[in-house]
Structures are given as structure tokens and as C-alpha cells.
Prior knowledge:
The chain is an alpha/beta fold. Strand 8 and strand 9 (about 270) form a beta hairpin. Helix 12 (about 385-390) runs parallel beside helix 14. The N and C termini lie far apart (about 70 Å).
Amino acid sequence: LDSLVGSSSSSSLATVEQPDDGVRCFVGPQRPKSTPFPYVPSDHGADDGDGTPPSVPNESSCPSPASPLTRHVVPSSPPPNCMPAQQQPSDGNGPQQQPTAVAADSSGSSGSGSSTFMNLPTEIQEAILDHIFGFRVSSTSTSGMEIISSSPSSPVARDCSWSTAMRHSRRRELTQLALVSATWRYLVQQRLYRHIKLKGTVDVVEDAMVHLSTHPHLRPLVRHLEIWFPVFQPKYGDSGAGGSNMRNPLPAATAAGGLALPTVTTDGLTNATYTLPRNKCSLDETLRFVEAALPEVRVLTLEGGERRKAPKVAHFRHSSSPETGSEPGSEPEPRQFVLLPSVKTLITRGQWNLARDNADLSTLLAALPNLRDWYASYSKPKSKSYIGMAEFLPLLPPRIATLKLCLESDYRRESVVPPFFLKAAERTHVCSSLATAAASGLEHLSYTGRCCHVLFDRIARLTADSRDSRLRSVDITLKNCCRPLSRYYDSGSGIHDMGFIDAFERLVLAAIRSLRVLKQVHYLRIRFVDLESALPPLNPYFLFKNNTCSGVWSGDILSEMSAARPYAQWDDLTDSFGNIVYNKEGRMVMSPQVPGKKMTSLKLTNYRLLSHRMTIH
């Protein structure tokens, strides 16, 4: 040790003390005063019951034997200066004098006590818990959604979704880590209560209210609240709303009020009976619970369900006219939700069951005065979802900066446009409404569904002055391109359909032309995803990121890009897709020119060569 430390080591290095008994004790160096401390050291590690977060306990250098998990992280043989007096090594003449560590003085030149696990800095202990639970990504910052990959071979930023980062599969087992120390108890509670999920029923909400009332120090820890409303539930007795099952009558015990358990046979479930839930919360009761119990919620997720023809979630309880403030026989006054100023992000899944018209959406968004991000998704493709969003998007509040809208999540090609979209196309055009919302103040737009070149043409037309545009990123995932109604039988999608490829090129050209006006856009992606494609690498896409382009290209695309962004560069421009051959089974197999490299150059004229001889399975 002398050869490593030296005879004249400075105070910034580790200090070696030679006690009287000849036992050497290694004392770690003291941390510099500039090191940030998230918690103020104190002699009290536990909370005082007033809801204030506990501070770092002033624990001794010896681990507490009452902690059941400490012996798993502390060495089995403690240092000599941590042994009790009756366990100190002796030479037969009685216990020897215990060595003492150098105490830290006010000048900061001496080291701390014996280096044990619990004496690690708090930021290091937080890093250990982040490795176990997942990184606590910021729920209000867009930049916090991207964490640079630690792999040196993958320098590209990967998305770390805060909506699932804290949903660990072994959350119940990980709660035992709170027994390590008082410091870990608070740090573990921060991570366990950061994202909670509740069932939207009266019983569950009341239980959560009681739990948070008896533990008020946990209320500020909840930052992401997820509430899902049940659509159906198993039938209880014969009094359910769904009626009785005549073919499979319920047993006697079930008819008395028990749960109708399905009978499992070789053919499957034979008497599974479901009905509408009776104790489902209204949306007003849910928001009142958030206002009363969770004042620090930043992200609110409302899930309406994915069942077909599911009932709409009630916004308010049915009440009489005196309670609504209107006289009998007159039109009821529009009711409003309570205000939740802390919510910055709203996620609505299965939105058709939550809001179905402009009044529903306006009432919901009015309850969130500080809303910045809105992620809306529909579970089933409907004509009413296209019509409803097309009518509401021009009324989008200007305070919303990020809009992520998913109208169709089925990533598969189609041979012809389905009838439900024809019904929607006869009444409205969603591309025009989406362009109005994008030009009214959006900074980030992400859309999944059907669109065409009208989207970017109208955005450029509505943005008269480039200084008025706040749009910075656009991400489009295509289900299909809008086509005239007269060409109904020639409106499929896929790499084998040249009508779709031509419409995709017009969409890319319109997007590039809009870059002349949208000066602040630094990220633009348009892609078509087909999970059943015979050649997935050939799914068309266009990506413009940090003045670098990749994906589909043609002569017109190159000329438009050079005019819109003269400093833009292309990753690669090749004239072929690589070696495409047919195997013995008659399927096409593609081997790129550079093995293992993603195809970043897709010449559009090559799709015409494949459209007549491609075998789709």
C-alpha cells in the first residue's frame, strides 16, 4: 500500500493510519465541497410524518443489523474498527484498544469514516437504483425522451419511453429494497410511486384516496397517473345488464349472487357471460380525485378500452335539474370539469370511448389549462374518428405544442381502400384540418393514418411568413395515401402498387417544397410500414434529419431538395436495390450490396420493375 500511496500523500488522496495494534485502516478521501447533494445530511433518516421527504441519515460506519438486506451488500467481515469490543482480536491479555478513523474537520482535509456501502454518496446510490428500476426520464421535457445509447457501436439516440420505463415486471419484489436504509426507502418510493395505474371504478378510486390520505408524504411522488376504464366485466347473477344466458344457465350458487365462472371444455369457454360494469367512475369523478389527492401529477393517461361497440365513458353523473343549475324544461347548461393546472401531458387511448364530438374534446382540454403535449390514439379504425378529428383539429388550443395522433395502427398493406374511409372522404378531408392545426402553433407533429400531398401544400400556403411558423419536426406514418373517389378500385397500398408509389412521391415532393417556408423544421420523416411485406427493406420512406437525407429519391426529389435546403447531403444514391432473386419456393430474396447495412437509397423507378413480377405471400 505504501508503494501505491507514497510516503508523503496529500490530503486529496486516501489516508492510511497506523494504529497502536499494527492494523492498517484505509480511510477514503473526502468529497470536494462542490459535489451537489440532493439531500441535506441530518441525524434523522426517517420522515417525521408531516409529508416532508427524509434526508440522508447520519449512519455510522457499521451497517445496522436490523436491515435484512444490508448483509447482502456489506462485506461479511467488517473492518476491525467496526467490531464490538468483545469481538476485537486479543493476544490473551484482554481486548486491545480499538483503532479510530481520522475524523473530518471543518477544513475538509481529512477523510470520512470507514468506507461502507451506506456511506456512498447519494448520487451513486441513485445511479444504482436507476440501473435496477430504469432511468427516470423527464415527463415534461422533450429532450428527456432521448437518451444516448451507451453502446459505442450505436451512437444514434434511442427513444426511452417514460410511459413504460417505470413499469417493472418485478415491482413487488423490488419494494423490499426499501428496507436497506432510510435513504433507500425514500429513493425506492420515488421510483415506485412515480407511475401508478388505477382501475376507473368507484371502489379502486376510494381505496386509493384512503391510502394517500393515510400516507400524505407519497402524494407529491406521483408524477404519471394512468387510469383505465373497464368496458365489460364478468356477469354477477341474473340481474346484470346483459340479461340471462338461456343456452347456458348459471349454476344455483351463481344465481344467488356469485361470480359466473366460465366452464372450460375442449372446445373452449362455453358459458362466459359478461355485462357492463356497474361501479365505473365518471370522468368528472376521476379528475376530482386527481385534484384532491395528487397535486404534482404531470402526465395523465386515460384509457377508454378497445372493445368493439363499447359504451362511452360517462363524463358526469346523471343528476337532477337543481344540481345542474338549470330549470326543468330548459336546456341544461354545459358542465365543466375541475381544473388540473399541474398536468402538462395528456394521453388518451381508445379515444372513441372517451370523447366522440367537439363538445367532449373541448370540455376535456379546457380542464387542463397548462397542457403542452397531447397523445391521442384510436384502437379501431372508424369513419367517425376521421370525421370527428377533422372537425376538431381546426379548434385545437394554441397552447398545445406537441400533437401525436394515431387514427389507424394496423401496419399492413391493403388491396383497396375500405368502405369506412370512403364514407369519411365524402364528408371531410383530414389533411386540410391537420394542416390547419400544424400551422396554428404546433412545434411537433406526429401522425399515423391516411394523408396526401394536400397536407404539406396547405401548411405552406397557411404559413405566409416563415418567422411565424413554430413547426420543428414532422413524423408521418402512412396507412395509405388519399386518392380520388373515382379511382376506388385503384387505391391499394404496398410496394407492388405503382399508384401508391406515385402518390408517395407526390407526398414527399410536397413535403420538401414546404421546407422553403418551414425554416425551423430540422426533422422530417415519411414512412410506410407493411408488416406482411415480401421485402421489408423496400418499404418506402424519406428521412430528413440534421441536413442529411435518406430513403426514396428521384430526379425531381433531388432538384426540389437542392432548392429548399441547398446544404442538405444524401447518405447514398444507388441505382439498384441490390441482388434480388427468386428462391426455390418462388419467393423473392434480396441481398444488399453491402451486407449488414440498412438500405438508405431507394430509387423510385426501380419499383416499377418489381410491380409486375412480384409474388406476394
